[in-house]
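Lay summary. Proteins are chains of building blocks that fold into shapes, and those shapes determine what they do. In this project we predict the shape from the chain. Here is one chain we studied, written as its sequence of building blocks.
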Amino acid sequence: MSCRMDNKAYLVQMNGDGVHGKNMVQPKSLIGTGVAGKGMLGNGVHHVNVNGSLYPAKAKSRRQRWEVKASEMANNTLNPIRAIVDGMKLSPNPDKPMIALSIGDPTVFGNLPTDDAVLQAMKDAVDSQKFNGYAPSVGYLKSRQAVANFYSCPEAPLEAEDVILTSGCSQAIELAIGVLCNPGDNVLVPCPGFSLYKTLAVSTGIKVKLYNLLPEKSWEIDLQHMESLIDERTSCLIVTNPSNPCGSVFSKEHLQKILKVASKHCVPILADEIYSDMVFPGCNSPSLASLSSDVPILSCGGLAKRWLVPGWRLGWILIHDRNDIFGSEIRQGLVKLTQRILGACTIVQGALESILNNTPPSFYSSTISFLKSNSEICFSELSTVPGLNPVMPSGAMYLMVGIEMNHFPDFKNDVDFTERLVTEQSVFCLPASAFEYPNFFRIVVTVPEEMMVEACARIREFCQCHYQPLSCEDLDQ
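And here is the predicted shape, written in a compact code that computers can read:
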């Protein structure tokens, strides 16, 4: 450290890059002061006055007038769902109460509360007053160990060091894409698929390549199409299982085929498994990592859906890398990315071990039973509606319905169809164009049963009003 007090300024020399030890934790004295990062020059030197505040080196302003613009990243950030929904003219029928089947939030209608044990864990964490401060950016060690214990299995063992806690599963996905991909790289994304993948990738200059899912095969991946998209700049394959928006669940055999393609082309997998274990009875789908012998996998999950608390914003990344392909570089890269913010909510982290260990199995089975029952009602009702082709889900919270648009000449596309469904019947389903899959719409099956029945009846009435049989001329074309 060198000091020069006569002009009321001195220099503080930081050692190296400011990273201390394996976990790269900033000194607590620097957290929240602005010293770590913002005021640091490229050589690790700070200019500090005697009062301890930072100021930049003198430089002439080259600007002659105000000109403040949004960054390229901000301008390139676009959520396809918002882009479509915000442009829709939604004016519900005033004579019919609105039924929103569009929002992937199981808490909206209040019929699916989380378990009392989950609430008690949070109350205990708050009352303890042990979790009001900063945690390590990757999460408390004890909480990470609890997640590792919960998801570890002989085929895919986990330790605390393999777990990173995040602010919801969305941040887990963001970190996974961020650590694996550079601008100019491409990622393979399911179509239809969760819109956030594209939002996160494109905003940072990463290209998205859409691989097809096959509705006639319960939304299995078109493996040949997926493989054809892989090139030397493919840095990540995203696999969503169980699926949003499809509600599909891949079989063990299909997952093994996916791994075979990834192994052949040496492409790591980002497994979005936020709906893991939300699988209907009679169906089984192991985690991708439990089937992988060589493909490294970043599995993203969280509390949001299985525990019915999306607003608590607690997610995780599980690092599966038994052959050390990721090595220390990806692990350290993830740690560095977590330091962009100060980690997931500490109160929820404090409750996490109890949530995982004390939630009764009956809570999970009750939720799944309800979702399956609602899905069966919806599928059964809409299967007999001329012009609609629902696909029965096997898990998660969604059901996709195909629209035979040639039977509905009143409408240009699925957006127009669903917009008019709101206008006439006050039922809001999400047009699948939001998932880049036109002529389908998605139904969320978490609404109360009587509301599900009523919604299906209104959809039937709507279709009966607008359905037109094909003429002989149409059939000849």
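What the prediction tells us: The chain has a mean pLDDT of 89.
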